[in-house]
Design brief:
Blueprint lengths: L26 H11 L8 H14 L3 E5 L2 H11 L7 E5 L5 H8 L3 E5 L21 E7 L8 H11 L2 E5 L7 E2 L2 E2 L6 E5 L12 E5 L2 H11 L26 H11 L2 H18 L6 E2 L7 E2 L5 E5 L1 H4 L4 H17 L4 E2 L10 H4 L27 H9 E4 L9 H15 L7 H12 L1
Parallel strand pairs: 2-3, 2-4, 4-5, 5-8
Antiparallel strand pairs: 1-9, 6-7, 6-11, 8-9, 10-12, 12-14, 13-14
Helix pairs in contact: 1-7, 2-7, 3-4, 3-6, 8-13, 10-14
Length: about 425
């Protein structure tokens, strides 16, 4: 293998012609989708209902509703838990925007909590200090496919009478002490976007074991009605509702993919463990951490640059260097990206406290009392946002250990040549490609 970085003209480490696109599609998917395509009902029918039932059985939930997105499922969780205008909901400072905008969707206020620097998840030891008199729930984001310390979080929630909502949008099959994500709180949301480990293009799943939470979420899901489309409806809106249902084609695709998910999960586990073992000791590379209580699904296999060892302290220099390293990895044939560049309190919708205009919902009397989004409160989240690189999809099934080894070679090649990473030179290379 050429030691010249591919971005400088060397040979890429990964043979991308051998990497299977995600998600893999076969005759199982074709048969199921064609059945939906030629069915009489295209909106909400047998495939929607069956997907919910099959997912609930697979994951260990009593109730499940297939939605049009993970974001919709998160909103349903808030409503099912009785969160309302001016309530406070704790959420991690680092995640996808939906983890916190779902709180705004029902006029409540997000209260951010800094992350643990090793797991990248909400730090359980910082939760109690963030609780306010208005706090009603905690959204626990099982980010990158790793479960948080749920015993500790649930104990805090019970002490303060808080609901626990799992944002399990990336955590299909991830385990906490042998129990699956989505069964560890009062309710949970999953996503089936194409990037997810279980994908049907777009979609989500709302799950719970609580009948009252289920009824509340279902009401939001279908126009504020109390009856589902498969039941006798009076078409009366009993509450403010959205149209969060999905269609039969997408549900059929989801059912087919779910039938193969255990194979997908096991393949990702093998590939992730292979990288953990064989990248140990790579200079200036910080590998992801898997606590004893957790089983990662490796939705994102996250690399971090050890800027402390490299003595790079300026945040702008860190970002420029990290972006250059990510570009070098991509040219080696690895699907590498910066998954989220901003922490949530940085985002304008939160920082400006003006989601709906006129400062709403923070302008609800008393709702903004004690709410502080100052960035210095979230040092771990800020540091992580500047140094991480996510590897996605290249490690997904049916790509096996042969591809994982090529990925290892590409990562080793880049990190063994960090002294040759010139952010300005790489920036110009990328700009020239755009011309």
């Amino acid at each position: 293998m050429s030691e010249t970085l591919a971005i400088y003209g060397g040979t890429p480490a990964v043979d991308v012609t051998k990497v299977v696109n995600w998600p893999p599609v076969d005759k199982t998917d074709e048969k199921m989708v064609l059945d939906a395509l030629y069915a009489q009902v295209q909106t909400y029918g047998k495939h929607n209902m069956a997907f919910g039932e099959e997912f609930a059985k697979w994951n260990g939930n009593q109730y499940a509703l297939f939605t049009n997105s993970g974001t919709a499922a998160l909103h349903m969780c808030l409503v099912g838990c009785g969160i309302g205008a001016g309530d406070h909901v704790l959420v991690t400072a680092y995640s996808w925007s939906s983890s916190a905008t779902c709180i705004l969707h029902h006029d409540a206020i997000p209260i951010f909590v800094d992350i643990d620097p090793e797991t990248f998840l909400m730090d359980p030891d910082k939760i109690e200090e963030a609780i306010t008199p208005r706090t009603k729930a905690i959204i626990v984001v099982q980010l990158h496919g790793l479960c948080n310390d749920m015993d500790k979080i649930n104990a805090i929630a019970r002490k303060h009478n808080l609901k626990v909502i799992e944002d399990a949008c990336q955590a299909h099959g991830a385990l906490y002490k042998g129990r699956k994500a989505g069964t560890l709180g009062d309710c949970a949301a999953f996503s089936f976007n194409q990037n997810k480990c279980l994908s049907c293009g777009e979609g989500g799943m709302f799950v719970t074991n609580d009948e009252e939470i289920y009824k509340g979420g279902a009401k939001l899901w279908s126009f504020g009605e109390t009856a589902r489309p498969d039941e006798r409806r009076d078409y009366h809106a009993y509450a403010l509702g959205w149209m969060y249902r999905n269609n039969e084609l997408t549900a059929a695709f989801g059912r087919a993919q779910l039938s193969k998910y255990d194979f997908y999960f096991n393949t990702l586990r093998e590939n992730g463990e292979y990288l953990l073992k064989n990248l140990a000791g790579t200079p200036d590379l910080l590998l992801p951490y898997e606590p004893e209580y957790a089983t990662h699904n490796w939705y994102n296999f996250n690399l971090r640059i050890d800027f402390d060892k490299m003595h790079i302290t300026d945040p702008e220099e860190q970002i420029a260097f990290r972006d250059a390293v990510a570009a070098a990895l991509r040219d080696e044939g690895i699907r590498a990206s910066v998954w989220q560049r901003f922490i949530l309190p940085e985002m304008t919708v939160f920082a400006a406290k003006n989601a709906y205009g006129m400062g709403y919902p923070w302008s609800i009397p008393g709702a903004d009392e004690g709410v502080d989004y100052s960035l210095e409160k979230f040092p771990n989240a800020l540091a992580y946002s500047r140094k991480h690189i996510s590897i996605v999809q290249t490690l997904r099934a049916p790509n096996g250990l042969d591809i994982a080894e090529q990925v290892r070679q590409g990562i080793s090649k880049v990190f063994n040549n960090l002294d040759k990473i010139d952010p300005e030179r790489i920036r110009k290379i990328l700009e020239d490609r755009m011309k």
